[in-house]
């Protein structure tokens, strides 16, 4: 059975809602809650296009005049997802900081909580709920809250290591949704339904005492030496493979002395025994000569367990330039000849 009645059931999210949502992101309408969108639609301040998405009425009847979600490569969306300073579209909800390092917490007292700031950039009230596993040493308080429009909420990130001499790392998730979506009765128009937003905080810490040596990492790192050459102004990507060959957990984080002209995802985390982690790295090459990029991975919270990785990148000079029609013509060759 269900835990709600037909009169109080929440709005059901369907694939069409996601298609509308992407269009509304491009048109800046996701910052308005469904009740405001319904009012604007009823007052003729908004209208629906041929696909059912909302738009501002224009004198031009063609749908081509309304913004649409641009064609963005998956890698670009992955690296510019709004968790850093650069984003393709401004996030409706954000949290700072997104990475927290508690460092050494040998006890017996628990470390002081770390303050978090959750910001609601929308024009509607949102509800935020944090997920939490009972065996996770990290958690956020309050675990559920409501944030008014254009306001922020102070939260606390806690860390309680249950065992001494252990490494800990986790990714905490929170889901934010417009409060009016908690009841299906508040939805007047189906096209105003908005999916929830996921917020993540990466946290890590350990309970080793200063006199004890951290476990020696046993791993292999497969890293290419070169980025693919690309045209001027284009990003270049590569992947790296980290394998934990040991019988203990392996933590990693990108050291602060790494080159600032590269982006590594994920920049911190934990690898289970005999498991692996795939990294994606991005840079924007400059110049036709090879340029070196140095970055450092620190393992198991120990400065002496530092791995230096060196890669090179460059722009690729144009060898062929097409005319405005972007077509190439090959003359028909004679038999036995090549063109």
From TrEMBL:
Gene Ontology process terms (BP): sperm axoneme assembly
Protein name, entry field: Coiled-coil domain-containing protein 108
Domain of life according to the entry: Eukaryota
Gene Ontology CC entries for this record: cytoplasm; sperm flagellum
InterPro entries in alphabetical order: CFAP65, Ig-like_fold, PapD-like_sf
């Amino acid at each position: 059975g269900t835990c709600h009645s037909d009169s109080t059931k929440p709005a059901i999210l369907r694939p069409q809602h996601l298609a509308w949502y992407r269009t509304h992101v491009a048109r800046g309408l996701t910052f308005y809650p469904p009740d405001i969108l319904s009012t604007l639609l009823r007052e003729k301040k908004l209208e629906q296009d041929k696909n059912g998405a909302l738009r501002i009425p224009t004198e031009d009847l063609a749908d081509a005049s309304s913004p649409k979600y641009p064609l963005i490569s998956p890698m670009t969306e992955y690296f510019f997802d709004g968790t850093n300073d650069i984003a393709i579209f401004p996030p409706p909800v954000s949290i700072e900081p997104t990475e927290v390092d508690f460092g050494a917490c040998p006890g017996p007292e628990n470390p002081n909580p770390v303050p978090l700031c959750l910001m609601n950039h929308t024009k509607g009230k949102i509800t935020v709920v944090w997920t939490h596993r009972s065996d996770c040493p990290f958690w956020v308080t309050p675990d559920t809250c409501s944030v008014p429009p254009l306001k922020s909420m102070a939260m606390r990130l806690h860390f309680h290591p249950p065992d001494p001499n252990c490494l800990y790392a986790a990714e905490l998730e929170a889901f934010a949704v417009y409060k009016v979506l908690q009841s299906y009765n508040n939805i007047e128009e189906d096209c105003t339904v908005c999916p929830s937003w996921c917020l993540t905080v990466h946290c890590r810490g350990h309970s080793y005492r200063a006199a004890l040596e951290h476990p020696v990492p046993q791993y292999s790192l497969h890293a290419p030496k070169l980025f693919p050459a690309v045209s001027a102004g284009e990003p270049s990507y590569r992947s790296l493979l980290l394998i934990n060959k040991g019988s203990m957990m392996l933590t990693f984080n990108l050291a602060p002395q790494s080159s600032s002209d590269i982006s590594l995802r994920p920049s911190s985390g934990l690898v289970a025994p005999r498991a692996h982690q795939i990294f994606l790295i991005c840079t924007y090459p400059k110049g036709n000569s090879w340029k070196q990029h140095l970055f450092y991975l620190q393992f198991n919270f120990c400065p002496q367990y530092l791995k230096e990785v060196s890669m090179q990148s460059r722009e690729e000079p144009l060898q062929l330039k097409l005319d405005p029609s972007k077509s190439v013509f090959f003359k028909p060759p004679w038999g036995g000849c090549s063109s």
